[in-house]
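Posting for a labmate who doesn't have an account.
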Amino acid sequence: MSRRVTPSLLASALLLTGLVGCSTDAPKKEPAPVAVEPPPAATPTPRVPAGSAPESAFGVGVRQLKLNRDGRALPVTLWYPAAGKAGGTARRSAAAAGGRFPVVMFSHGLGGRPEDYAALLTRWAAAGFVVAAPAFPHTSEGGDGNVLDVLNQPADVSYALTQVLALDGKAGDGLRGRLATDRVAAAGHSAGGVTTIGLFTANRDERLDAGVVFAGTAVGVGTAFAGATAPQLFVHGELDEVVDYAAGKAAYDKVPWPKALLSLPKGDHGRSLLGDAASLRVVSDTTVEFLRWTLYGDPKAKKRIATDATRNDIATFDDHL
């Protein structure tokens, strides 16, 4: 979330979302008993086959994709592994590196922009992921700030994902043949965290294999996590002045799949979480290993997650992966 938005404004807006949102946690009248077979138990491991993630970092390319869903303009920023030397800033429209790379959809916070998160997202791209970040029509910088539109954003992300994956087969596109279309995750910060939780609850997108929620809450989208097993990593500052840490943990506690919570005792809503250099390193390294495990199926990466999460006592780690 952009620091230009005041904490009180977002807190009020999220409260409104909770009042009018169709939460799947609302009490329901018990139906008459019906003889049905119980659903199959969720598998305790990710559905991505075991494999290995790239061991060397890539250069990073960046480009724009202009999308529109039924009149909802959705410009998407794409960061991707690029050919050439690793390191340095992202190069606009650089040639893609060789290989096939998993896709991560990222949702920004209220009043934010995809580029606000470039320090984190370029690290994901350098590690071997194509990151697609839409700018939402009402909640991005310059929009009208209608926080209730967050409830429409999971559908925006699913639409954008369909269009991004289609690039893999589009003649002449720089990402043709470069996307692992069967390996996809969703991530988001604050209102984007709400959006991400919605993609695994009320608006479940079955293409998603994993989720990463930064300073998010289930207000408005509920905690009825559904569908195939999709491991979740929650990241939350314990001093969050906008989305209370307890609200994020309450959503985390409801996740029925493999999960972990990275807590930053001195972390606030955004600056310490994603801006402070020491915290950013812990957050980025932990999320990279989580994505390597869930999207590449790399068992070695899974073993490194807890080590990265607890480095230098910056964060604590509740590990149920």
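Reply:
Got it, the structure tokens are right above this. The domain at 11-16+54-320 is CATH 3.40.50.1820 (Rossmann fold).
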